[in-house]
Design a protein that fits this description.
The protein has about 210 residues and is mainly β. Helix content is about 10%, strand content about 45%. Strands 1, 3, 4, 6, 11, 12, 13 and 15 form an eight-stranded antiparallel sheet that branches. Strands 2-5-14-7-8-9-10 form a seven-stranded antiparallel sheet, with no helix packed on it.
């Protein structure tokens, strides 16, 4: 009941803000000079075609279960609003791909990621805040941080996240009902950028990022 009530509040808030002034940010075309995209001896990126669509491909050359990386616009200031993007996991069952928001830097942000290899199970969607150098996912294995969703193994899927205060509602592939509603976002992570997230996967594909800030 509490989850449903929170979702209704988010919908009402989203409708209310839609009637007020919102600021759109379109990142469907990525200008490298305006982005922070990490590039190290084990992490790289490319602009390439994936399943017929031009995309940013993040690539990790060495597996590390404590690794996670974010790519994001430098000047975006996101506190509350709507984030939409398309994501794919070329590695299929080994894919850990998603989005991040309220990004301060590579080690301080809110993460929302997807496991296509766990489609249909409680492990398909995962929320967690990151505030350490190492990605400490093992601290957020409780079911309250996870949710079921039906995800394609390697194909593109669309994600929409509505964020307001400590609440988030997550929609997949334009379905009317959210796959996740969570109302305890980290109070220490208040504002920052929004962008792409890659976990312990050899690659992730991303495109069509748009953000509406309230």
């Amino acid at each position: 009941m509490k989850t449903c009530f929170t979702f209704l509040l988010l919908l009402i808030a989203g409708h209310s803000f839609a009637q007020q002034k919102t600021q759109p940010h379109n990142y469907t075309i990525i200008k490298l000079s305006e982005w922070i995209i990490p590039q190290t001896d084990t992490l790289n990126y490319a602009f390439d075609n994936y399943l017929g669509a031009k995309a940013l491909i993040l690539k990790r050359s060495i597996a590390n279960y404590k690794s996670a990386s974010v790519a994001y616009p430098k000047t975006l200031n996101f506190k509350d609003g709507v984030i939409e993007l398309d994501i794919a996991a070329p590695t299929g069952k080994a894919g850990y791909v998603g989005l991040a928001f309220r990004i301060k830097d590579q080690h301080h942000y809110e993460a929302l990621y997807f496991r296509p290899g766990s489609s249909g199970t409680i492990n398909a969607v995962q929320y967690m805040p990151e505030k350490k150098v190492e990605f400490n996912w093992w601290d957020y294995e409780a079911t309250k941080y996870q949710a079921k969703a039906t995800l394609p193994l390697t194909a593109w899927f669309h994600v929409k996240a509505i964020v307001k205060g400590r609440n988030i509602a997550v929609f997949v592939n334009n379905q009317p009902k959210p796959v996740m509603v969570y109302n305890e976002l980290d109070p220490d992570l208040k504002t920052g950028s929004a962008g792409f997230w890659l976990g312990n996967s050899s690659s992730g594909a991303y495109k069509n990022l748009t953000v509406q800030t309230f």
